[in-house]
Fold this sequence. Notes:
Layout: E1 11-12, H1 19-29, E2 39-42, H2 44-52, E3 56-63, E4 77-81, H3 83-89, E5 98-103, H4 109-113, E6 119-123, H5 129-141, E7 146-149, H6 159-165, E8 174-176, H7 179-188, E9 193-196, E10 202-203, E11 213-217, H8 226-231, E12 234-237, H9 249-265
Parallel strand pairs: 1-4, 3-4, 6-7, 6-11, 7-8, 9-11, 9-12, 10-12
Antiparallel strand pairs: 2-5, 3-5
Helix pairs in contact: 1-3, 5-6, 5-9
Amino acid sequence: MPAGTLRTRPRLIESRQNPRVKELRAALARTGRTPSGLIAIEGEHLVAEAMRSHLRFATVFLREGYDPQMELPHDAEHLLLPADVFASAVATEQPQGIAALVHPPIFSAATIFGAEAPLVLALAGLQDPGNVGALLRSAEAFAATGVLLLPGTASPWNPKAIRASAGSAFRVPAINATEAEAVDLLAQHNIPAIAAVARDGAPIDEAPLAGACALLIGNEGAGLSDTLIAAAAHRITISMPGNVESLNAAIAGSLLLYEASRQRRNPGCPILSEAKGGIPPHSTHRHPRQRPTSS
């Protein structure tokens, strides 16, 4: 797109203590939304992704001398900041010259569970926002219908999570839920939960992922809780011939999402059943608490 597509001249702000500048600075340092409910994004790619996702912009911040190579939202406030003021407000060491405060999308359970065969990712206590963002990106790549964010999981609106998602956080439906709420939602929609465990689970290529299912990914250190393991219909383990104890949560979850996508492309893939000696339902075969899948 042509550069310099602003309809009005940005308002010059020269003080680091300007309320909007302070709000941007705080938002990029926070773990989620600002008190006014906004999220902060920085850089050309995320601004473009937010526009592509039809998010509503509150304020666009431009560094003096920056020449926008995209059409910027016309209904937002535009502020022009001297280089030192802009640098004081953003998180990166070499900022691209554009940042924004944006209204996040609003998602609901109906969006996640409305598909014919939902593929749901449930994240239980994932504290690293980078892992959360990477999993949101994988969820979009492999056509998951949504994500359940269980207690202890980093906010998808953490700036690090937004960056790691590369914009997928704007489009992948993600909602907060307690463990009990997540179990109830899955039961209401007749979606079997499949727990990723570090050992003693069935191989992932034998798991029943072609139909509706929810992949449970546990905390990087503690794994899944006893409650979630007890609620799971199946347990699966990613085979690792190498000499490592566990996988990073984002890698483990991405591998499982890929396998689900592969099975859904291939109707002839093996689907486990008890008659074939597959993964036994947890209600008829109890295991001790499993070690975490991720590290």
